[in-house]
Amino acid sequence: MNSTLSTQKCEACHVDAPKVTDEELQAFMSQLPDWVPEVRDGVMMLERVYKFKNYKLAWAFANKVSELAEEEFHHPAILLEWGKVTITWWTHAIGGLHKNDFICASKTDALL
Question: Span 97-108, mean pLDDT?
């Protein structure tokens, strides 16, 4: 079902859009086992660390994620380090997780 997420498009999200429910969170997380829900400053986010053999490979992956973000018009935090890229998705407009974040997480995994 992970492929189902990766084939969907993000929808425009407004301040009154619903955050994912606890049940939806569990269902989505079962499809994205390498991602971790994190709460920072009271905001639930979805995070994954990708490891690479060197900086250049990490940089290339970060660029691919940036292109994905522009295509979906949904933008994550991207931390680029030597041999490592940390991607954090959340929906700024609602201060938490929306289905868009899980769609983009799945599409991020597909970039590997």
Answer: 97
